[in-house]
UniProtKB/TrEMBL annotation:
<keyword id="KW-0503">Monooxygenase</keyword>
<dbReference type="InterPro" id="IPR036188">
    <property type="entry name" value="FAD/NAD-bd_sf"/>
</dbReference>
<dbReference type="InterPro" id="IPR002938">
    <property type="entry name" value="FAD-bd"/>
</dbReference>
<dbReference type="GO" id="GO:0071949">
    <property type="term" value="F:FAD binding"/>
</dbReference>
<keyword id="KW-0285">Flavoprotein</keyword>
<keyword id="KW-0274">FAD</keyword>
<dbReference type="InterPro" id="IPR050493">
    <property type="entry name" value="FAD-dep_Monooxygenase_BioMet"/>
</dbReference>
<dbReference type="Pfam" id="PF01494">
    <property type="entry name" value="FAD_binding_3"/>
</dbReference>
<protein>
    <submittedName>
        <fullName>FAD-binding protein</fullName>
    </submittedName>
</protein>
<feature type="domain" description="FAD-binding">
    <location>
        <begin position="6"/>
        <end position="343"/>
    </location>
</feature>
<keyword id="KW-0560">Oxidoreductase</keyword>
<dbReference type="GO" id="GO:0004497">
    <property type="term" value="F:monooxygenase activity"/>
</dbReference>
Length: 387
Protein backbone atom coordinates (compact mmCIF):
# COMPACT_ATOMS: atom_id res chain seq x y z
CA UNK A 1 0.00 0.00 0.00
CA UNK A 2 1.19 3.57 -0.62
CA UNK A 3 2.21 5.46 2.49
CA UNK A 4 -0.01 7.74 4.55
CA UNK A 5 2.55 9.55 6.75
CA UNK A 6 6.21 10.51 6.33
CA UNK A 7 8.62 11.99 8.86
CA UNK A 8 11.13 14.36 7.25
CA UNK A 9 14.36 15.12 9.09
CA UNK A 10 15.61 18.55 8.04
CA UNK A 11 13.75 21.69 6.95
CA UNK A 12 16.09 22.90 4.24
CA UNK A 13 15.08 23.10 0.60
CA UNK A 14 14.94 19.30 0.16
CA UNK A 15 12.82 18.77 3.27
CA UNK A 16 10.32 21.55 2.58
CA UNK A 17 9.86 20.53 -1.06
CA UNK A 18 9.40 16.91 0.02
CA UNK A 19 6.63 17.93 2.43
CA UNK A 20 4.79 19.93 -0.25
CA UNK A 21 5.22 17.20 -2.85
CA UNK A 22 3.91 14.53 -0.48
CA UNK A 23 0.95 16.69 0.54
CA UNK A 24 0.11 17.09 -3.15
CA UNK A 25 -0.55 13.34 -3.15
CA UNK A 26 -2.53 13.39 0.09
CA UNK A 27 0.36 12.13 2.24
CA UNK A 28 0.81 13.72 5.65
CA UNK A 29 4.32 15.14 6.18
CA UNK A 30 5.86 15.89 9.59
CA UNK A 31 9.10 17.89 9.42
CA UNK A 32 11.65 17.93 12.25
CA UNK A 33 14.31 20.63 12.29
CA UNK A 34 16.96 21.01 15.00
CA UNK A 35 17.28 24.79 14.54
CA UNK A 36 15.01 27.03 16.61
CA UNK A 37 14.37 29.20 13.53
CA UNK A 38 14.94 28.79 9.82
CA UNK A 39 17.79 31.18 9.07
CA UNK A 40 19.42 29.83 5.94
CA UNK A 41 23.19 30.13 5.74
CA UNK A 42 24.82 30.96 2.47
CA UNK A 43 23.85 33.62 0.02
CA UNK A 44 22.39 33.32 -3.46
CA UNK A 45 21.45 30.37 -5.61
CA UNK A 46 20.37 29.70 -9.16
CA UNK A 47 17.08 27.95 -9.92
CA UNK A 48 17.32 26.41 -13.35
CA UNK A 49 14.26 25.46 -15.45
CA UNK A 50 14.26 21.81 -14.33
CA UNK A 51 13.73 23.05 -10.75
CA UNK A 52 11.48 26.05 -11.43
CA UNK A 53 9.12 23.73 -13.33
CA UNK A 54 8.65 21.72 -10.14
CA UNK A 55 8.20 24.83 -7.99
CA UNK A 56 5.49 25.90 -10.41
CA UNK A 57 3.71 22.57 -10.04
CA UNK A 58 3.85 22.96 -6.25
CA UNK A 59 2.38 26.46 -6.41
CA UNK A 60 5.51 28.25 -5.19
CA UNK A 61 6.83 29.87 -8.36
CA UNK A 62 4.26 32.68 -8.42
CA UNK A 63 5.67 34.01 -5.14
CA UNK A 64 9.22 34.07 -6.55
CA UNK A 65 8.95 35.48 -10.06
CA UNK A 66 8.03 39.04 -9.05
CA UNK A 67 11.12 39.35 -6.84
CA UNK A 68 13.85 37.19 -8.35
CA UNK A 69 16.08 38.03 -11.30
CA UNK A 70 15.71 36.14 -14.56
CA UNK A 71 19.22 36.63 -15.99
CA UNK A 72 19.61 37.52 -19.63
CA UNK A 73 22.40 34.98 -20.04
CA UNK A 74 25.12 32.97 -18.31
CA UNK A 75 28.47 34.40 -19.37
CA UNK A 76 31.93 32.78 -19.20
CA UNK A 77 34.57 35.49 -18.91
CA UNK A 78 38.36 35.62 -18.58
CA UNK A 79 39.29 36.60 -15.04
CA UNK A 80 42.38 38.47 -16.19
CA UNK A 81 41.27 40.31 -19.35
CA UNK A 82 37.47 40.31 -18.75
CA UNK A 83 37.09 39.11 -22.33
CA UNK A 84 33.86 37.23 -23.05
CA UNK A 85 34.68 33.58 -23.80
CA UNK A 86 31.17 32.18 -24.32
CA UNK A 87 27.57 32.65 -23.23
CA UNK A 88 24.34 30.70 -22.83
CA UNK A 89 21.10 32.65 -23.27
CA UNK A 90 18.47 32.59 -20.50
CA UNK A 91 15.59 35.03 -20.00
CA UNK A 92 12.86 34.54 -22.60
CA UNK A 93 15.05 31.97 -24.34
CA UNK A 94 14.82 29.68 -21.29
CA UNK A 95 11.03 29.85 -21.34
CA UNK A 96 10.90 29.11 -25.05
CA UNK A 97 13.45 26.28 -25.08
CA UNK A 98 12.90 24.58 -21.70
CA UNK A 99 9.37 25.68 -20.85
CA UNK A 100 10.18 27.25 -17.49
CA UNK A 101 12.21 30.24 -16.25
CA UNK A 102 15.78 30.46 -15.04
CA UNK A 103 16.00 32.54 -11.85
CA UNK A 104 18.60 33.86 -9.43
CA UNK A 105 17.68 34.80 -5.86
CA UNK A 106 18.80 34.72 -2.25
CA UNK A 107 18.60 31.28 -0.70
CA UNK A 108 16.54 32.67 2.18
CA UNK A 109 13.95 33.98 -0.32
CA UNK A 110 13.34 30.50 -1.70
CA UNK A 111 13.25 28.98 1.77
CA UNK A 112 10.67 31.53 2.95
CA UNK A 113 8.42 30.87 -0.05
CA UNK A 114 8.61 27.13 0.64
CA UNK A 115 8.05 27.65 4.36
CA UNK A 116 4.98 29.83 3.75
CA UNK A 117 3.52 27.12 1.51
CA UNK A 118 4.24 24.43 4.10
CA UNK A 119 2.66 26.42 6.93
CA UNK A 120 -0.46 27.00 4.82
CA UNK A 121 -0.87 23.31 3.97
CA UNK A 122 -3.02 21.31 6.43
CA UNK A 123 -1.15 18.09 5.60
CA UNK A 124 2.23 19.57 6.62
CA UNK A 125 3.47 20.00 10.19
CA UNK A 126 6.78 21.64 11.09
CA UNK A 127 8.56 21.15 14.43
CA UNK A 128 11.44 23.57 15.03
CA UNK A 129 14.02 23.12 17.78
CA UNK A 130 13.69 19.33 17.54
CA UNK A 131 17.10 17.69 17.10
CA UNK A 132 16.69 14.05 16.12
CA UNK A 133 19.03 11.29 17.30
CA UNK A 134 19.17 8.86 14.40
CA UNK A 135 21.84 6.47 15.66
CA UNK A 136 19.25 3.69 15.58
CA UNK A 137 15.61 3.29 14.60
CA UNK A 138 14.38 2.94 18.18
CA UNK A 139 15.78 6.30 19.29
CA UNK A 140 14.54 7.88 16.08
CA UNK A 141 11.01 6.59 16.59
CA UNK A 142 11.04 7.80 20.18
CA UNK A 143 12.17 11.28 19.11
CA UNK A 144 9.47 11.49 16.44
CA UNK A 145 6.84 10.45 18.94
CA UNK A 146 4.44 8.87 16.47
CA UNK A 147 4.37 6.18 13.82
CA UNK A 148 5.55 7.15 10.35
CA UNK A 149 5.49 4.90 7.31
CA UNK A 150 8.65 6.50 5.89
CA UNK A 151 11.65 8.38 7.29
CA UNK A 152 13.20 10.87 4.84
CA UNK A 153 16.70 12.05 5.62
CA UNK A 154 16.90 15.59 4.22
CA UNK A 155 19.51 16.65 6.76
CA UNK A 156 22.40 17.58 4.48
CA UNK A 157 25.95 16.43 3.89
CA UNK A 158 26.46 15.70 7.62
CA UNK A 159 23.27 13.63 7.75
CA UNK A 160 22.56 11.69 10.93
CA UNK A 161 19.81 9.70 9.25
CA UNK A 162 22.50 8.24 6.99
CA UNK A 163 23.54 6.01 9.91
CA UNK A 164 20.32 4.05 9.38
CA UNK A 165 21.22 3.16 5.79
CA UNK A 166 23.72 0.27 5.60
CA UNK A 167 26.30 0.95 2.91
CA UNK A 168 25.21 4.58 2.66
CA UNK A 169 27.41 7.43 1.38
CA UNK A 170 30.03 9.15 3.51
CA UNK A 171 31.22 12.77 3.34
CA UNK A 172 34.73 13.70 2.33
CA UNK A 173 36.55 16.94 1.62
CA UNK A 174 36.68 17.82 -2.08
CA UNK A 175 39.92 19.78 -2.02
CA UNK A 176 38.05 23.01 -2.79
CA UNK A 177 37.14 26.04 -0.70
CA UNK A 178 34.29 28.44 -1.47
CA UNK A 179 34.38 32.03 -0.25
CA UNK A 180 30.93 33.57 -0.29
CA UNK A 181 29.69 37.10 0.23
CA UNK A 182 27.18 39.62 -1.00
CA UNK A 183 28.03 43.17 -2.00
CA UNK A 184 25.57 46.08 -2.30
CA UNK A 185 24.78 46.85 -5.91
CA UNK A 186 25.92 50.46 -5.49
CA UNK A 187 29.40 49.24 -4.51
CA UNK A 188 29.73 46.66 -7.26
CA UNK A 189 32.62 47.05 -9.73
CA UNK A 190 31.66 47.70 -13.33
CA UNK A 191 33.12 44.34 -14.37
CA UNK A 192 30.03 42.60 -12.97
CA UNK A 193 27.03 42.47 -15.29
CA UNK A 194 23.80 43.61 -13.66
CA UNK A 195 21.62 41.50 -15.94
CA UNK A 196 23.48 38.17 -16.13
CA UNK A 197 25.15 35.35 -14.27
CA UNK A 198 28.91 35.64 -14.81
CA UNK A 199 31.58 32.97 -14.28
CA UNK A 200 35.08 34.47 -14.29
CA UNK A 201 37.67 31.79 -15.11
CA UNK A 202 41.34 31.58 -14.13
CA UNK A 203 44.09 29.08 -13.29
CA UNK A 204 43.07 26.97 -10.25
CA UNK A 205 40.24 29.35 -9.35
CA UNK A 206 36.98 30.79 -10.60
CA UNK A 207 34.47 33.36 -9.38
CA UNK A 208 30.72 33.46 -9.99
CA UNK A 209 28.60 36.60 -9.66
CA UNK A 210 24.95 37.42 -10.20
CA UNK A 211 22.52 40.06 -9.00
CA UNK A 212 20.09 39.33 -6.18
CA UNK A 213 17.32 41.70 -7.20
CA UNK A 214 15.27 41.46 -4.01
CA UNK A 215 18.27 42.57 -1.91
CA UNK A 216 19.71 45.12 -4.37
CA UNK A 217 22.99 43.22 -4.06
CA UNK A 218 25.32 40.85 -5.89
CA UNK A 219 26.03 37.30 -4.81
CA UNK A 220 29.70 36.37 -5.15
CA UNK A 221 31.26 32.92 -4.83
CA UNK A 222 35.03 32.52 -5.25
CA UNK A 223 36.25 28.90 -5.40
CA UNK A 224 39.88 27.88 -4.97
CA UNK A 225 41.80 24.75 -4.09
CA UNK A 226 42.73 24.47 -0.44
CA UNK A 227 43.10 22.27 2.61
CA UNK A 228 40.22 21.12 4.75
CA UNK A 229 39.15 23.03 7.82
CA UNK A 230 36.22 22.74 10.22
CA UNK A 231 32.70 21.75 9.26
CA UNK A 232 31.51 25.27 10.06
CA UNK A 233 30.03 26.65 6.85
CA UNK A 234 29.72 30.17 8.18
CA UNK A 235 33.30 30.91 9.33
CA UNK A 236 35.18 34.02 8.29
CA UNK A 237 38.48 32.19 7.78
CA UNK A 238 41.88 32.83 9.28
CA UNK A 239 44.36 35.43 8.12
CA UNK A 240 46.40 32.71 6.41
CA UNK A 241 43.31 31.39 4.62
CA UNK A 242 42.42 34.88 3.39
CA UNK A 243 45.98 35.35 2.14
CA UNK A 244 45.68 32.07 0.23
CA UNK A 245 42.46 33.33 -1.38
CA UNK A 246 44.11 36.55 -2.51
CA UNK A 247 47.14 34.70 -3.90
CA UNK A 248 44.86 32.67 -6.16
CA UNK A 249 43.46 35.89 -7.62
CA UNK A 250 46.65 37.97 -7.61
CA UNK A 251 47.02 37.98 -11.42
CA UNK A 252 43.36 38.67 -12.12
CA UNK A 253 41.83 41.91 -13.28
CA UNK A 254 42.39 44.66 -10.71
CA UNK A 255 38.70 45.35 -10.20
CA UNK A 256 38.14 41.78 -9.03
CA UNK A 257 41.21 41.55 -6.80
CA UNK A 258 40.32 44.88 -5.16
CA UNK A 259 36.78 43.65 -4.52
CA UNK A 260 38.10 40.51 -2.85
CA UNK A 261 40.59 42.45 -0.73
CA UNK A 262 37.76 44.56 0.68
CA UNK A 263 35.56 41.66 1.79
CA UNK A 264 36.49 41.15 5.42
CA UNK A 265 33.17 39.46 6.18
CA UNK A 266 33.36 36.83 3.43
CA UNK A 267 32.48 33.37 4.74
CA UNK A 268 34.83 30.42 4.35
CA UNK A 269 33.13 27.19 3.20
CA UNK A 270 35.18 23.99 2.83
CA UNK A 271 33.31 22.03 0.16
CA UNK A 272 32.44 18.46 1.11
CA UNK A 273 30.85 15.88 -1.13
CA UNK A 274 29.25 12.50 -0.53
CA UNK A 275 30.73 9.28 -1.84
CA UNK A 276 28.71 6.72 -3.76
CA UNK A 277 26.53 4.48 -1.61
CA UNK A 278 23.01 3.23 -0.98
CA UNK A 279 20.28 5.81 -0.44
CA UNK A 280 17.74 3.63 1.38
CA UNK A 281 17.65 0.76 3.84
CA UNK A 282 15.40 -1.49 1.78
CA UNK A 283 12.49 -0.91 4.10
CA UNK A 284 11.46 2.54 5.34
CA UNK A 285 14.37 5.03 5.38
CA UNK A 286 15.51 7.12 2.40
CA UNK A 287 18.10 9.87 1.86
CA UNK A 288 17.56 12.82 -0.48
CA UNK A 289 19.49 15.91 -1.52
CA UNK A 290 22.93 16.45 -0.02
CA UNK A 291 22.38 13.64 2.47
CA UNK A 292 22.42 11.23 -0.47
CA UNK A 293 24.72 12.85 -3.00
CA UNK A 294 26.29 16.17 -1.98
CA UNK A 295 28.30 17.31 -4.99
CA UNK A 296 30.51 20.19 -6.04
CA UNK A 297 28.73 23.37 -7.20
CA UNK A 298 30.45 23.50 -10.59
CA UNK A 299 27.21 22.70 -12.44
CA UNK A 300 25.02 24.98 -10.23
CA UNK A 301 22.62 22.06 -9.67
CA UNK A 302 22.79 21.36 -5.93
CA UNK A 303 19.46 22.99 -5.05
CA UNK A 304 17.87 21.74 -8.27
CA UNK A 305 18.80 18.13 -7.51
CA UNK A 306 17.33 18.42 -4.01
CA UNK A 307 14.10 19.75 -5.53
CA UNK A 308 14.00 16.98 -8.15
CA UNK A 309 14.73 14.31 -5.53
CA UNK A 310 11.93 15.43 -3.25
CA UNK A 311 9.37 15.73 -6.04
CA UNK A 312 10.11 12.39 -7.68
CA UNK A 313 10.33 10.50 -4.38
CA UNK A 314 6.90 11.78 -3.38
CA UNK A 315 5.34 10.62 -6.61
CA UNK A 316 6.80 7.16 -6.29
CA UNK A 317 6.00 6.45 -2.63
CA UNK A 318 2.47 7.76 -3.07
CA UNK A 319 1.66 5.39 -5.92
CA UNK A 320 3.50 2.13 -5.17
CA UNK A 321 4.22 -0.24 -2.29
CA UNK A 322 6.95 1.38 -0.22
CA UNK A 323 9.83 -1.06 -0.71
CA UNK A 324 9.21 -1.16 -4.45
CA UNK A 325 9.01 2.65 -4.55
CA UNK A 326 12.29 3.15 -2.70
CA UNK A 327 14.14 0.75 -4.96
CA UNK A 328 12.62 2.28 -8.07
CA UNK A 329 13.48 5.78 -6.87
CA UNK A 330 17.15 4.97 -6.29
CA UNK A 331 17.53 3.20 -9.63
CA UNK A 332 15.80 6.08 -11.38
CA UNK A 333 17.78 8.90 -9.76
CA UNK A 334 21.33 7.53 -9.52
CA UNK A 335 22.17 7.68 -13.27
CA UNK A 336 21.13 11.34 -13.43
CA UNK A 337 23.15 12.25 -10.34
CA UNK A 338 26.18 10.37 -11.70
CA UNK A 339 25.94 12.23 -15.00
CA UNK A 340 25.72 15.58 -13.20
CA UNK A 341 28.75 14.69 -11.09
CA UNK A 342 30.64 14.07 -14.34
CA UNK A 343 29.45 17.39 -15.72
CA UNK A 344 30.56 19.19 -12.54
CA UNK A 345 33.98 17.49 -12.69
CA UNK A 346 34.38 18.54 -16.32
CA UNK A 347 33.41 22.12 -15.51
CA UNK A 348 35.93 22.16 -12.66
CA UNK A 349 38.66 21.02 -15.04
CA UNK A 350 37.63 23.53 -17.71
CA UNK A 351 37.09 26.50 -15.39
CA UNK A 352 40.45 26.09 -13.63
CA UNK A 353 42.48 25.21 -16.72
CA UNK A 354 45.90 26.74 -17.29
CA UNK A 355 48.46 26.97 -20.10
CA UNK A 356 47.72 25.22 -23.42
CA UNK A 357 44.55 23.62 -22.03
CA UNK A 358 43.16 27.07 -21.17
CA UNK A 359 43.95 28.33 -24.68
CA UNK A 360 42.29 25.32 -26.26
CA UNK A 361 39.23 25.76 -24.01
CA UNK A 362 38.83 29.39 -25.00
CA UNK A 363 39.21 28.60 -28.70
CA UNK A 364 36.65 25.77 -28.67
CA UNK A 365 34.09 27.76 -26.69
CA UNK A 366 34.54 30.95 -28.69
CA UNK A 367 33.57 29.34 -32.01
CA UNK A 368 30.37 27.76 -30.69
CA UNK A 369 27.19 29.85 -30.96
CA UNK A 370 25.17 30.40 -27.77
CA UNK A 371 22.29 28.24 -29.02
CA UNK A 372 24.70 25.32 -29.50
CA UNK A 373 25.96 25.64 -25.93
CA UNK A 374 22.36 25.80 -24.73
CA UNK A 375 21.59 22.56 -26.56
CA UNK A 376 24.27 20.84 -24.48
CA UNK A 377 22.15 21.63 -21.42
CA UNK A 378 18.85 20.25 -22.70
CA UNK A 379 19.29 17.06 -20.69
CA UNK A 380 19.75 19.15 -17.51
CA UNK A 381 17.24 21.96 -17.91
CA UNK A 382 14.63 20.14 -19.98
CA UNK A 383 14.40 17.16 -17.61
CA UNK A 384 10.75 16.08 -17.14
CA UNK A 385 10.57 15.15 -13.46
CA UNK A 386 8.11 12.38 -12.63
CA UNK A 387 5.80 13.48 -9.84
Amino acid sequence: MPIKTAAIIGAGIAGLVAALALARHGVRAIIFEQAEALTEVGAGLQVSPNASRILDTLGVLDALRPIWLEPKEVRLVSGSSLRLIASVPCGNFAMERWGSPYGALHRATLQKALLDAVMANPLCTLHLGRPIDATNRQTLDAAIGEDADLIIGADGVWSKVRALVPGGPSPHFSGNIAWRFTIPEVLTPGALDRTSVMAFLGPSAHLVSYPIKENAAFNIVAIISGSSASHDWNATGTKAQRELLLRHFADWNGAITTMLEQQEEATFWPLYQASAGRWHNGKDVILIGDAAHAMMPFAAQGAAMAIEDAFELAGMVASRPLVEALDRYEKHRTPRIARLRQRAAFNHFAYHARGPVRLARDLVLSVRPPQSLAADLDWVYGYPAIG
